[in-house]
Amino acid sequence: MPKFALIVLGLLLSLLAKGQYRPQHSLYLLNNYLITPALTGIESYGDLKAGYRSQWTGLKGAPITYYLSYHMPLQNSSLRTYKPNPTKRSGKVRESVEVMQSNTQLKRHHGVGGSVMADRHGSFQRTEVNASYAYHLPLTRQITASLGASLGLIQYGLDYNKIILANPNDPFLANGLERQYQTSLNLGFWLYSSKFYFGGSAAQLLKEDVLYVDAENGNVRNAGAANFFVTGGYRFKTDLMWDFIPSILVKRLEDSPVTFDAAIKTIYNRRVWAGGVYRNNEAIVVFAGGAINSNLDFTYSFDYGFSRSQLDRYSSGSHEVVLSVRLFYHHKVLCPDQLW
Question: Which of 148, 150, 256, 279 has its CA 20 to 30 A from that of 217?
């Protein structure tokens, strides 16, 4: 791809994404698999999720992202040995879940998965395909550690037909779609139980030059640079039917300052949930969702941007939805076993 075209791509990308190398996700709490491959096969069922995000709605050419992810354990049997306790009353959803978790023993296991994600910013396109693997090793009766890796391919594209130029006869720009490819290697770890999780990852470790110009300071940056994430959360239970889960996500994008998301999620009776996310110096997110049945749930979020960007001032916010489907699910409770 010609260097001049890379600079043009960068100008568009920096204006629309404010230096954002990877697609933004406000509902990562519902799918931490997008952050680290160590979650591959973490549940006892096949975890299928579809997501759609419209950023800065109302602005022409604003980013649109959609993805499909799936991961599952390799074993056909349950990841837990489960012996029901017939003396325990299980009339309520929460009680049935507590009985199941208290009478089970985690097993070591492997997981496999994959994802497809497409991101569109005006004339700029980014498509990523990944395949992942993870190994889960119980450390105690309730605590498990996992290591995971994913390998994939990223395609960056620039559609010249969507660019309005002062000189349409510029010899450096041809008609059609210009593409560049990058191999993607991601590594991650995860430590988890029924009460907490802690993990992190490093993404895009196979660096390749995909240059762009930062509109804020004019510096030339690399969209193919490595990304680093650390996250953790803890579940507080009450004597009633409520769970409260505060969490934090710290992000370090190479050549950029450290940023973080602080979130709180509230769950009632394992059936409905709501919460919010504070993204430092950028946005406040509110979200809500619920279980339609034991195999299907849906969540919606809205971002209100408060940065100094003109994009936040003239857009009507950002919207995101995630649809979750649990396949080959034997326990039939209304909430994931590990990630709530």
Answer: 279
Q: Which two tokens stand for residue 212?
A: 């762009």
**pTM given for the model:** 0.78
| pLDDT greater than 60 at residue 215 | no
- Tell me the C-alpha distance between 307 and 259, whole Å: 14
How far is it, in rounded angstroms, from Cα 277 to Cα 58?
Answer: 22
CB 94 within 8 A of CB 156: no
SS3 99: helix
Q: What are phi and psi of 268, to 5 degrees?
A: -110, 120
pLDDT tens figures, 125-172:
899 999 999 999 999 988 999 999 999 999 988 876 666 666 666 665
Contact 158, 127 (CB under 8 A): no
Cβ contacts of residue 169 below 8 Å, gap of 6+? none
User: What DSSP string runs through 35-63?
Assistant: T-GGGTT-SSSEEEEEEEEE-STTSTT--
Buried-state track 183-216, b at ≥16 Cβ within 10 A, e below 16: ebbbbbbbbbbbeebbbbbbbbeeebebebbbbe
For 170, other C-beta atoms within 10 Å of its C-beta total: 13
Identify whether the C-beta of residue 184 lies closer than 8 Å to the C-beta of residue 117: no
So what's the pLDDT on residue 216?
A: 44
As a whole number of angstroms, the distance between CA 136 and CA 110 comes to 6
Which DSSP string do the residues of 291-334 spell out, in sequence order?
EEETTEEEEEEEEEE-SS-HHHHHS--EEEEEEEEEES-SS--S
Amino acid occupying residue 82: Y
| Among candidate residues 316, 186, 219, the one with its CA nearest the CA of residue 19 | 219
